[in-house]
């Protein structure tokens, strides 16, 4: 058990350091970063290793890095609604959640890391705020009103 706790702490430190790197590069202007290239309000950040990460925010904004935050690339999400949560499990698999036109929206990317597609879910009237995956198949999304959906197939199907 002690080993798992220290792994969580190490991962938390990694995320904290990534945020600090983003802030410093924005201030120093040495590298392209979401903070220096956009006035977007960012809502969530996820790194799956030391190199690969995503940050999401308002207007469907998604930025990705493959070099530990030195450089960031704006990606096309296919939505203009706010994205409130993001989670990645490896360099090829990430999910983002947020507010859709009639409820929650779940987006996913795999393999090419650049194209995001909306996953079908019955989240009408629910604001999705959080997403967490254990691996490329098993994950959960959570929203207001105590709603939690689960998937065991990478998001092809979601169950309340």
At a glance:
The protein has 160 residues and is α+β, with helices and mostly antiparallel strands. It has helices at residues 2-28, 34-37, and strands at residues 42-47, 53-57, 62-65, 73-75, 83-90, 93-99, 104-109, 117-119, 128-133, 139-143, 148-151. The strands form three sheets. Strands 1-2-3-4 form a four-stranded antiparallel β-sheet, covered by helices on one side. Strands 5-6-7-8 form a four-stranded antiparallel β-sheet, with no helix packed on it. The protein has a three-stranded antiparallel β-sheet with strand order 9-10-11, with no helix packed on it.
What report would you give on this structure?
This protein has 160 residues and is α+β, with helices and mostly antiparallel strands. The protein has a single domain (2-151), classed as 6 Propeller (Neuraminidase). It is built from two helices and eleven strands; from the N terminus they run H-H-E-E-E-E-E-E-E-E-E-E-E. It has helices at 2-28, 34-37; strands at 42-47, 53-57, 62-65, 73-75, 83-90, 93-99, 104-109, 117-119, 128-133, 139-143, 148-151. The chain is globular and about 40 Å long.
CATH class: Mainly Beta
- Count helical runs: 2
Per CATH, the superfamily is TolB, C-terminal domain
Q: Please state the second-level CATH architecture.
A: 6 Propeller
Order of helices and strands: HHEEEEEEEEEEE
- What percent of residues adopt helix (DSSP H or I)? 10-25%
- Our measurement of the CA-to-CA distance between the termini, rounded to an integer number of angstroms, reads 30 Å
CATH topology, anyone?
Neuraminidase
Write out the strand line-up for the largest beta sheet, numbering strands in chain order.
Answer: 1-2-3-4
Rg, Cα atoms, Å: 15 Å
Q: How many strand elements?
A: 11
The major pleated sheet works out as: 4 strands, antiparallel
Please indicate the percent range of residues in DSSP E strands (runs of 2 or more).
35-45%
Structural class: alpha+beta
Average pLDDT over all residues: 81
Outline: globular
- The count of domains is 1
